[in-house]
Amino acid sequence: MEDLKNVYISPLPDSPYVKPFRFNYTQNGKEKTWDLLEVHDSVAIVVFNVSRKVMIFVKQFRPAIYYNCIHPDDRESKVIDTEKYPASLGIALEMCAGIIDKNKPVIQIAQEEVLEECGYNVPLDQLHKITSYRSGVGVQGSLQTFYYCEVTDDMKTEQGGGVDDEIIDVVEKTIPEIEEMVNSPGPIPSPPSCLFALMWFLHYKADKFRK
Length: 211
Known about the structure:
Layout: E1 19-27, E2 30-38, E3 42-49, E4 54-61, H1 63-67, E5 91-94, E6 96-99, H2 106-118, E7 128-135, E8 142-151, E9 169-174, H3 175-182, H4 192-204, H5 207-210
Parallel strand pairs: 3-8
Antiparallel strand pairs: 1-2, 3-4, 3-6, 4-5, 4-9, 7-8
Helix pairs in contact: 3-4
């Protein structure tokens, strides 16, 4: 995961994942513009293993985090110095998640993501929708749907770690470790949606597993 080489920045060609555009509008009689990104909606799943009372996270390299750790002057380099900027700067700890890019029910996509990334085969009736919310409201405003499921060791049927060229590590944390994480002064290498999910779990679910 941290074997990073040949890093450089280039212009964006046509992308199936991100489409930049300018939004033009008149508000209260004043003409305005806003630069936006069209992206896929997504799902995120809080996976808690009740056999060992641990939360299941995924750890992966996120280029967006890595890029924002590079000094603006160094971004102009032909090749980024990965000794000065090691891959560890871009490692994120997140909930299991994925984009909605298939013509399937959202809950089925959530089920597939849990199996592919974490290795747990969760029946659809054990995936509980909690809420949905808008993410990246400054530039994209896509919809993310949040699910919760409880799993056991017996439900672990696959290795996990993603599919195709994904490189994902499965990480487990106890409830005290989660509490320490959300109370950290930061910067926390996790998106706001992950922290929201953890706070939701601590508020609504954690007490029954502390006994």
